[in-house]
Write a structure and sequence with these properties.
- With about 140 residues, this protein is an alpha/beta fold.
- Helix content is about 45%, strand content about 15%.
- It is built from six helices and five strands; from the N terminus they run βαβαβαβαβαα.
- The chain has a five-stranded parallel β-sheet with strand order 2-1-3-5-4, sandwiched between helices.
- β4, α4 and β5 form a beta-alpha-beta unit.
- The longest helix is centred in the first third of the chain and has 13 residues.
- The two termini are about 25 Å apart.
- The relative contact order is 0.18.
């Protein structure tokens, strides 16, 4: 699977760790930046991730920041993106099962690196349940 990934300065370290995990798992990460811990404005790096997912350039996306809040807000402004702000494995599982989240947002200041990596694994491995949830997804994408 191709997965766009982007962060601001506050999510940079976890972005690098997640890119390594994705590669180890056989996925192809497409890094949209930032490329250091130098202070930047997150929309410059999150919008390209969301646009890559919405256009079909990549199948999914991962965005990171200090809290993940602004990044999720930015990603969700792009039609066709369903970005779940995840803080634990259950939020990632439900984001996929019920909401068909094609992007997740993580906050580096909110969790350990180990937790972030577990969240990514769960999100990658969890299928969308469809069924009663599909009508809601259709309404989001209308």
């Amino acid at each position: 699977m191709t997965i766009a990934i982007g962060s601001d300065h506050a999510g940079f370290r976890y972005k690098e760790a997640i890119k390594n995990l994705l590669t180890e798992l056989g996925h192809t990460p497409i890094d949209k930046g930032t490329f250091s811990e130098e202070t930047v404005d997150y929309p410059r790096f999150i919008r390209p991730v969301a646009e890559a997912v919405a256009s079909g350039e990549t199948e999914r996306g991962i965005v990171l920041g200090g809290s993940g809040n602004g990044e999720a807000m930015m990603a969700n402004r792009i039609k066709g993106v369903r970005c779940a702000l995840c803080w634990n494995e259950e939020s990632a599982r439900l984001g996929r099962q019920h909401n068909n989240a094609n992007v997740i947002s993580l906050g580096q200041r909110m969790m350990s690196e180990e937790t972030a990596l577990r969240i990514v694994r769960v999100w990658l491995d969890t299928p969308f349940e469809g069924g009663r949830h599909q009508a809601r997804i259709d309404q989001l994408d209308a």
